[in-house]
Each structure stands twice: as C-alpha cells, then as structure tokens.
C-alpha cells in the first residue's frame, strides 16, 4: 500500500494538535491525542502520551489511506496524496466520497483541487479560522508535488 510521507504526517499533527486528555471536538465526538476519535471500549482514563498518540495516529491514518486509495482512481503525486489523506483524516471518507473535490481529481482536473479544498472550511454553520488555515496548508502541500 502507498504510504503518506513524513510531510503529510506533520501536516496532520500540526492541525490536529496534541491533547493528552479526552476533549469533545467541534463535531461532538470524544477525541484524544492527534485527533483520534475515542471508540467504544477504548480506555483513555489515564490520558495518552505523545509517543502513544503518534502510534494511534499512524494506525488511524492507515485506514484513511485505504479510503483515499479506494476513492481516487487517478495517479497522485506525494503532495496530492498527503493533502487528500489530511483532508480525509479531518473530515472522513464520506466527505471525500461525496465531494466535488473527488470528482474533479478523478476527471484529471488536478488544478481545480486547491479551490475545491477551500470549500470545506465550515463547521457548526460558521467559517472556521482553523479550517481555513488547514485547507490552505493542504492546498500548498497538494501543489508541492513531492
């Protein structure tokens, strides 16, 4: 399977931020570490260390990569791939699946992706500064190529 690059992991970590304790994310889910949604049966009552959180992130990113590879039918540069994995990690495979972003890329309209990424900056009915910054960073990574 194709692997996200270190730049891609760093991008996700930067925008997810690290939390050693459980918090409720903007979507209403209990979350810990680098954006890990706490699942039924998981016990983080003692918190999580940064090395543990990175290991969980890498495991979660594997599932995200499978979704990206399933949904995108055209060749991708490392920058394209990293940006799409970050986007999908943040919003879920369903968002990528139903997006114009996916349709444009699969039609080979690679150049339209940065503008499509910038459409995904809303949460709880408001434009979110953090999402704007993340989408801009994903667009930059998308255009980097390697």
H/E series? HEEEHHHHHEEH
Provide the structure class.
mainly alpha
Radius of gyration based on Cα positions: 15 Å
Helical stretch count? 7
Count all strands and give the number: 5
Globular, elongated, flat, extended or rod-shaped: what is the shape?
globular
The low-confidence parts are none
Q: What gap, in angstroms, lies between the N and C termini?
A: 18 Å
- Helical residue percent? 55-70%
In the sheet with the most strands, the strands line up as 1-2-3
Q: Look at the structure and give the mean pLDDT.
A: 96
Which band does the percent of strand residues land in? 5-15%
Tell me about this structure.
By secondary structure, the chain is mainly alpha-helical. Helix content is 55%, strand content 11%. It is built from seven helices and five strands. A three-stranded antiparallel sheet has the order 1-2-3. Strand 4 and strand 5 (126-127) form a beta hairpin. The chain is globular.
Compact description:
This protein is mainly α.
List the helices and strands and how they pair.
Layout: H1 6-16, E1 19-24, E2 30-33, E3 36-37, H2 50-71, H3 78-91, H4 93-98, H5 100-106, H6 113-117, E4 122-123, E5 126-127, H7 129-144
Antiparallel strand pairs: 1-2, 2-3, 4-5
Helix pairs in contact: 1-3, 1-7, 2-3, 3-7
